[in-house]
């Protein structure tokens, strides 16, 4: 009898494991979006992620990153850049959708994930599934925040995505600016994110509707109620081929490329493309752009690196001055959600945050310079 009871107990455990029964809290899934949605008809599949290799090679550098395989980093981004900053949010039939200002933005902001690597900076890990944007969301007290979802972080309701995203990765703006075309001009200093993360809540919520990822993280009706104005609705129209230009808005429609890719591992490596395309000058990171096809001399590299160090120090000083000016105003008139004592603690946390962020940026720049001097990667 005891033996029969034991076998029943074992069978219950096996059944519970097979059905995924658990008393634990929701945890992060290790594979993010890969292989978890559906299998599209073969006629709809473009290929594997190597499809992006040729498309993005003129605009950035592909290299192998341990643990992730081939990743990509753009040439033409400004110093201190973060993903999902140069562009705008619009509301479509798939929810809040990112429209990039970059010519290459149709791919890295809708497929795959971004990762801030301490050695290489922001890099993009290709993915096979399209989404209106792969970001986490925070909302509350008149503020909206978003941040790139790192690889391996699930987006299902109940997962604490904020635990896997560093504070300076977030972008915060007042909710009245969320749908404005000049969005990046209204994003607050990243040093202040430690404060806004405390006064907002995680509202990240994506779902699958008719085999498509839909962003339900932020209620458009709530935003309209708060800002007391109507927010335009747009309909996503498919690009048949990968666009050679930015996503195109016309009337209440926007053309976007969103075909699924196969799960198969890529069978080739990215090409090394020397591009002669001109680089946008606005907010361009000094010395970084598509290669000219001719290697720079050692003296030119040193001169450019010195210029980069100078410009980084200048930006850091400007950010500190701006933060101190904000602190001065808040001491005179503390925010209505904080007491004077809490305001002082908030300011201390923000100073620590800007110290950590700027120290990391200096180290990253130094590491990149050392790699260039050793001849690792391209000398741009």
Percent in helix = 25-40%
In N-to-C order, the SSE pattern is HHEEEEEEEEEHEEEHEEEHH
Low-confidence stretches: 1-43, 274-293
Give the domain tally: 2
The assigned structural class equals alpha+beta
Strand order of the largest sheet: 4-3-13-15-14
- How would you sum up the major sheet? 5 strands, mixed
Q: Quick check: average pLDDT?
A: 80
Measured between the Cα atoms of the first and last residue, the distance is: 77 Å
Number of strands: 15
Gyration radius from CA atoms, angstroms: 23 Å
Share of β-strand residues: 15-25%
Shape: globular
Number of helices: 6
Secondary structure: elements and pairs:
Layout: H1 2-19, H2 51-56, E1 60-65, E2 69-74, E3 87-92, E4 95-100, E5 113-117, E6 121-125, E7 135-140, E8 143-148, E9 171-174, H3 193-199, E10 201-202, E11 206-209, E12 212-215, H4 220-227, E13 233-238, E14 248-250, E15 253-256, H5 298-332, H6 340-373
Parallel strand pairs: 3-13, 13-15
Antiparallel strand pairs: 1-2, 3-4, 5-6, 7-8, 7-10, 8-9, 11-12, 14-15
Helix pairs in contact: 5-6
Give an overview in words.
There is one protein chain. The protein is an alpha+beta fold and 380 residues long. It has two domains: 26-266, no CATH class; 286-380, no CATH class. The chain has helices at residues 2-19, 51-56, 193-199, 220-227, 298-332, 340-373; strands at 60-65, 69-74, 87-92, 95-100, 113-117, 121-125, 135-140, 143-148, 171-174, 201-202, 206-209, 212-215, 233-238, 248-250, 253-256. The strands form five sheets. Strands 4-3-13-15-14 form a five-stranded mixed beta sheet, with no helix packed on it. Strands 9-8-7-10 form a four-stranded antiparallel beta sheet, with helices on one face. The termini are far apart. 30% of the residues are buried. Residues 1-43 and 274-293 have low confidence and may be disordered.
């Amino acid at each position: 009898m005891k033996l029969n009871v034991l076998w029943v107990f074992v069978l219950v455990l096996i059944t519970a494991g097979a059905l995924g029964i658990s008393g634990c809290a929701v945890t992060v899934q290790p594979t993010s979006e890969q292989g978890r949605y559906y299998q599209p008809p073969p006629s709809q599949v473009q290929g594997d992620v190597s499809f992006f290799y040729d498309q993005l090679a003129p605009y950035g550098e592909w290299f192998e990153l341990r643990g992730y395989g081939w990743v990509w980093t753009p040439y033409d981004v400004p110093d201190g850049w973060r993903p999902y900053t140069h562009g705008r949010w619009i509301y479509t039939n798939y929810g809040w959708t990112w429209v990039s200002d970059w010519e290459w933005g149709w791919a890295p902001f809708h497929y795959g994930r971004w990762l801030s690597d301490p050695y290489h900076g922001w890099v993009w890990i290709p993915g096979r599934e399209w989404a209106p944007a792969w970001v986490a969301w925070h909302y509350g007290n008149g503020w909206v925040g978003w941040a790139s979802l790192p690889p391996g972080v699930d987006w299902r309701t109940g997962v604490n995505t904020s635990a896997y995203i560093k504070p300076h990765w977030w972008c915060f703006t007042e909710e009245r600016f969320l749908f404005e075309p000049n969005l990046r001009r209204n994003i607050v200093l990243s040093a202040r994110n430690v404060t806004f993360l405390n006064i907002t809540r995680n509202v990240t919520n994506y779902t699958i509707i008719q085999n498509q990822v839909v962003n339900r993280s932020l209620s458009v009706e709530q935003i309209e109620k708060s800002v007391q104005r109507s927010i335009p609705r747009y309909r996503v129209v498919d690009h048949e081929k990968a666009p050679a230009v930015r996503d195109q808005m016309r009337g209440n429609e926007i053309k976007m490329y969103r075909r699924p890719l196969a799960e198969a591992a890529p069978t080739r490596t990215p090409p090394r493309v020397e591009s002669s395309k001109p680089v946008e000058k606005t907010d361009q990171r000094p010395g970084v752009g598509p290669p000219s096809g001719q290697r720079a001399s050692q003296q030119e590299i040193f001169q450019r690196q010195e210029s980069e160090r100078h410009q980084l120090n200048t930006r850091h000083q400007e950010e500190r001055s701006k933060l101190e000016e904000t602190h001065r105003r808040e001491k005179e008139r503390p925010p209505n959600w904080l007491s004077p004592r809490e305001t002082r603690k908030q300011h201390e946390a923000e100073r620590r945050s800007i110290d950590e962020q700027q120290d990391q940026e200096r180290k990253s720049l130094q590491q990149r310079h050392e790699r260039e001097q050793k001849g690792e990667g391209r000398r741009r």
